UniProtKB/TrEMBL annotation:
Gene Ontology terms: biological process: carbohydrate metabolic process
Stretches that traverse the bilayer: none
SUPFAM superfamilies membership: Arabinanase/levansucrase/invertase, Concanavalin A-like lectins/glucanases
Alphabetical keyword list: Glycosidase, Hydrolase
Coiled coil: none
Higher taxonomy: Bacteria, Pseudomonadati, Pseudomonadota, Gammaproteobacteria, Cellvibrionales
Region (Disordered): 16-41
Swiss-Prot/TrEMBL site (Important for catalytic activity, responsible for pKa modulation of the active site Glu and correct orientation of both the proton donor and substrate) positions: D166
Superkingdom, natural source: Bacteria
Name of the protein this chain belongs to: Beta-xylosidase
Residue ranges occupied by any Beta-xylosidase C-terminal Concanavalin A-like domain in the UniProt entry: 340-533
Entry similarity comment: Belongs to the glycosyl hydrolase 43 family.
Statement: the UniProt record of this protein carries the keyword Ubl conjugation: no
Positions annotated as active site in the UniProt record: D55, E223
Amino acid sequence: MGMAALMLLSGCSGQPGTLGQSERGAEQGAHDASASSPSPGQWASNPLIWADVPDPSVIRVGDTYYMSSTTMHMNPGLPIMKSHNLVDWELLGYAYDTLSDGNESTLSQGEQSYGQGSWASSLRYHQGRFYVSTFANHTGKTYIFSTDDIENGDWERATIDELFHDASLVFDQGRVFLIYGNDDIHLVELNAEATAVKPDGLRTTLIEKASSIAGDEFWVPSEGAQLTRKDGMYYLNLISWPAGGMRTQLVYRAEQLTGPYEGRIVLEDRGIAQGGLIDTPDGDWYAFLFRDFGAVGRIPYLVPVQWRDGWPEYGIDGKVPERLPIVATGDGLNNLVASDDFDYASEADLKLAWQWNHNPNDNGWSVTEPPGYLTLTHQRVDSGLLDTRNTLTQRTFGPESRATAALDVSELRSGDRAGLAALQANYGFVGVEQKDSGRALVMVSGNAEQEQVQARIPLTQSIVYLQIRADFEGQRDQASFWYSLDQEQWTRIGEPLAMEYTLPHFMGYRFALFSYATEQTGGRAAFDYYRVE
């Protein structure tokens, strides 16, 4: 196995040395995960990020960590993040603006890609170049993006016309592979550029019925492959979800990439599972995993790992600790969420925290016309919120979060609705409904099958202030809806929404700015600001 490939699979940098060795003598500081002995009051805490950041894939290059994650049908997609200590993460950008342009991706002709889009990714660094793979069920394809500059460069895309589920990208001894599958875990060889399946390359099954070490019946068989190499051994992380049990972390190991593999359960604690192993410059090891946590989504946890007899032991006495001896410098959210006054020189400057629900229609939105506003102009007639393009979203977050928006509805037309939503399959929103007879404040709850106006209050002014308060403490998962006419006195409207994480959308709730037409095109909503706290 080549040195660059060895260091890639361990998340190590391009410095020579034995896989997993500490980079002894390197300058250490507060940024290193094990560089100091902080007092407990300074320690980082789990969850690292109380927001939807699922399917993490983490590597280390020198003393810097990079992570990719999943955002499904949102665009831009496949977020890339950076950290110096494994706990404080900065969003750098996305691997793509849009993944595909069919009806499913544009919410056209009654089609949609909710819960589809890009799934579990695999981030790698090899011979000076970064690679990240993903796949999409709605296109049936696998995608590999690459760049020489992960922080500022553009990503090149390669498309493979096969779907490799939850694949781990592997560079090994001058060859390139994907390890993938559900229950049965397979390997397929790619070409040297990692842009296509290699003709006549190796295809084999590595592990049959990988779930079997965790039980007999499963809600989710083994998947989520992530491969690491340490001290000459290959370690393959997988998860399974035994029926009646919890999401469980498995590790299989082998002396050769092609096996044979032996496996064991390494963690059963509150369903914290799926992810991979990562080492620090000082030689400590962690597993970067996530936990299903109700309506807020799937939230990341950092798990200490010790090695015994060639096996990783996850947690402390089999449990994931609440505190970590790592100095945390932020609140875990950093720029994953952001308030916005929409003061931009161009649309290209939109803050990274924002993602569109499906592909945007660039003719229907602006942050420069007029300056200082997000304007959403109706390009078509839609039946409801879930069918609406140009819905702009950010993550909700726990334990409690609040989003406030200022909305100018003076240019809405009859049949138009605009406002602030708690977006998932079962949604709720507070907004303004325009009719020929006048306008009204409304609070609406609904799903793909039905929609119900919970409250309607006549409105005579054209500027209104909207607010959603989301409570995820103890998985209460409740959202309440508020309005103000003067930014000072707030009044609750309608009924609280019992937020529910659903598989059709497969992501945590989003705060969403929206506007749509039900009768005619041409109307426009203008958002003056969005504030999150």
